[in-house]
Amino acid sequence: MRLHNEHFTVIAGPCAVETYETTLRCAEGVLKAGATLFRAGAYKPRTNPKSFQGLGEKGLEILAAVRKETGLKVVTEVMEPGAVEKVAAYVDVLQIGTRNMSNFPLLREVGRTRHPVILKRGMMSTLSEYLQAAEYILQEGNDNVILCERGIRTFETYTRNTLDLSAVPALKEQTQLPVLVDPSHGTGRRSLVHSMSLAALAAGADGLLIEVHPDPDNSWTSDGKQSLDLEGFERLMADLERLAPHFGRSLPPRLAEAQAKVRQPS
Ligand code: PEP
Ligand code: MN
């Protein structure tokens, strides 16, 4: 799987895998709204060791079941070199989180797979450090690396991070790798996600990685605060569909519609 140059790729789903039912409901909702890939974490890097750490292998099994049920390809985070083989067996795309951007043994290990790797920008990394981290993966022979700007730490406290949208054109001046934007972790606030998503399209991003939860206020992680609900995500997709052609992009054909056509040939 590779990101398509002319398409604006939207990857959506909850922060963490919760129950099979919630995960499936979310995947069906984002699929219907036009998402290309589904995201959800089975292994969660949490600041507090007492916080919910993800369902682990059980979460991977739920992801595989949801993938089978919906046909949506799945993205999940891998946190340790020793877990790469197992995680890669369950999902289509590996994610390296912000806290692991400089975990060089982990970067080397995902570089030895042939899975696409979404490498998130370290929250305190310069673009030069970021591109050198990507080089660790490329050097092992895996050229399917996808960058993702997810906000950096600044003195601002109203937002969780400061979403550095200038990183998008700045990275594109220096590399051919695709660049996504994560407006959810980038702002930490649901109310800011829609506008920052449209701004990411205008800045030249290749797509979005966005948190969506069918019932964000009852999410199992604190990231419910930054998650769109399914209605909010549908509204965002409608705006993106309308605006993308103005920026030389289109949204990929809807998988849900394509699948419906296959099921009921006319
Ligand atoms: C996530 O995508 O849920 C996540 C933990 O992101 P980040 O590594 O950017 O904080
Ligand atoms: Mn999250």
Bound molecules: phosphoenolpyruvate, manganese (II) ion
The radius of gyration over CA amounts to 17 Å
**Spatial order of the strands forming the largest sheet:** 1-2-3-4-5-6-7-8
Major beta sheet summary:
8 strands, parallel, barrel
What does this structure look like?
It contains 10 helices and 8 strands. The chain has 266 residues and is of the alpha/beta class. Strands 1-2-3-4-5-6-7-8 form an 8-stranded parallel barrel, surrounded by 7 helices. The mean pLDDT is 96. Phosphoenolpyruvate is lined by residues 15, 41, 45, 97-98, 120, 150, 182, 185.
Q: Could you provide a short overview of the structure?
A:
The chain is α/β, with parallel strands linked by helices. The protein is 40% helix and 13% strand.
Keywords:
single chain, 266 residues, alpha/beta, 8-stranded parallel barrel, 10 helices, 8 strands, 13% strand, binds phosphoenolpyruvate, binds manganese (II) ion
Give a topology summary.
Layout lengths: L8 E5 L6 H14 L3 E3 L17 H14 L2 E5 L6 H7 L2 E4 L7 H8 L5 E4 L6 H13 L5 E5 L17 H8 L4 E3 L1 H5 L2 H14 L3 E5 L18 H14 L11 H9 L3
The structure holds phosphoenolpyruvate and manganese (II) ion.
